[in-house]
Amino acid sequence: MIHIILACAAGMSTSMLVTQMQKAAKTQEEEVSIRAISTSEIDHVVATEKVDLILLGPQVKYQEKTIKERVQSQGVPVAVIAMSDYGRMDGKAVLKAALQMIKG
Q1: Active site members
Q2: pTM (2 decimals)?
Q3: Which residues cross the membrane (predicted)?
């Protein structure tokens, strides 16, 4: 199973996108665990759980470099969700991009 974390300031706005991504994953029959957290929870989650990818909400893009440095030792990739996909809450597009990042 693939584990994807979406992170934003409080984990609230990304939770709506998580729902859309879960629907897309179910339709595509992908075994994916997706959940939303706040950026302040990233260190704990990465240290205690399997995480394949961290996607940041566009509103916390300014934290990307710092978060990448914090999770570098665990080898977890970090990317920012495209503003256009985020604004449309396009779970299918975000899931597709995430799976491409993970699977290569």
Answers
A1: 8
A2: 0.94
A3: none
